[in-house]
Write a structure and sequence with these properties.
- The structure is a single chain.
- This protein is of the alpha+beta class.
- The protein is 23% helix and 31% strand.
- It has three helices and five strands.
- It has helices at 31-47, 51-56, 130-138, and strands at 9-15, 63-70, 79-87, 93-102, 107-116.
- Strands 1-3-4-5-2 form a five-stranded antiparallel sheet, covered by helices on one side.
Length: 141
């Protein structure tokens, strides 16, 4: 059965930079988390939910969980795509999944991050902030 919700995704193309590789010429595993960040930033720009938008509303969204599974290596000079998908939740959280594909369209890596909302006092928000709920409503979520 197909969900009635919109599925929001964003695809960003990136080239592996020299400083991201180890002596073997492959991307060091820690950089994949940075690539996830690139995906979140691109998603925010495309769908109107950037970190600056969140900050202007008086909130921050620290990551409380991240996962990353590696399947194939990326090498210096290759291009790859990051597909970032927003996972809708009733909780006051930002959940994203990621798939990274190499230039041969092979799945290189997949993962997920979970972020929570903290208000200007650093208190955890148990309910969606008004601006975030308005964004979800606008997006049909």
């Amino acid at each position: 059965m197909q969900s009635k919700e919109n599925i929001l995704t964003c695809t960003e193309e990136v080239r592996v930079r020299f400083n991201e590789t180890d002596p073997l010429g492959i991307v060091w595993h820690g950089h994949y988390i940075v690539y996830f960040e690139d995906g979140r930033e691109a998603f925010g720009r495309e769908h109107g939910l950037t970190y600056l938008d969140i900050q202007r509303e008086g909130y921050v969204t620290p990551i409380v969980k991240s996962t990353c599974e590696h399947f194939l290596p990326l090498k210096y000079g290759e291009t790859f795509r990051i597909v970032t998908t927003f996972v809708n939740s009733v909780s006051a959280k930002l959940i994203y999944t990621y798939e990274i594909f190499n230039q041969n369209n092979q799945l290189v890596c997949s993962g997920e991050t979970i972020q929570v909302f903290l208000d200007s006092n650093g208190s955890l928000c148990l309910y969606n902030p008004d601006f975030f709920q308005a964004w979800k409503d606008k997006m049909g979520l």
